[in-house]
Amino acid sequence: MGGVDEEKVLPNLEGILVSERAQEEMYATLCMASLDTGDDRVRLRVLGHPPPMVLRDGEVEETRVTPQPPLGVFPVEQTDTDTVVLPVGATMLFYTDGLVDAYDGAPPARLEVAGLRRMVSGVLEQGTSLIHLPERVVDEAERSNGGPLQDDVAMLLITHGEVE
Predict the structure, then answer these.
(1) Range of 130's domain?
(2) pLDDT of 7-29, one tens digit each?
(3) In the chain, helix, strand, coil percent, each to 5?
(4) 48: CB partners within 8 A, 6+ apart
(5) What is the CATH number for 101?
(6) What digits encode the pLDDT tens for the residues 60-75?
(7) What is the pTM of this model?
(8) How many domains does the chain have?
């Protein structure tokens, strides 16, 4: 969108992070998704971040991605790109690590990605619509955590619909 080639986005972001960070230990986790209209393939680059999930026909699947270090830890010259199919009617769920860092009951056990997947599945099994899914998942994560979550939480749902 900014006129930067897809392959140059992360090196450019890293340049900004490194030049503006207050301490050398600062880094950023991220998940970058690229998709073209008319295609069912999503190109993912996941750097120190939990991978998105695909929701389809009541099933919740973790995407298989190549783990890579966070931005700002090692120089980003080229990142591994994973391709995930997002069929028509499926939804990709992106989320921040504030959810997976929640406690899964009593500390020290964390929810992690597998626990979040089970939680999302359970919420969907209760008949929750996609529009209400983020609110219900946060409610469940806070219940599991025994109170408010300690880190920021954001979710983004992208549904692949047919182009008319």
Answers:
(1) 6-159
(2) 889 988 999 999 999 998 899 99
(3) 30, 25, 45
(4) 27, 28, 29, 30, 68, 69, 70, 71, 73
(5) 3.60.40.10
(6) 999 999 989 999 998 8
(7) 0.90
(8) 1
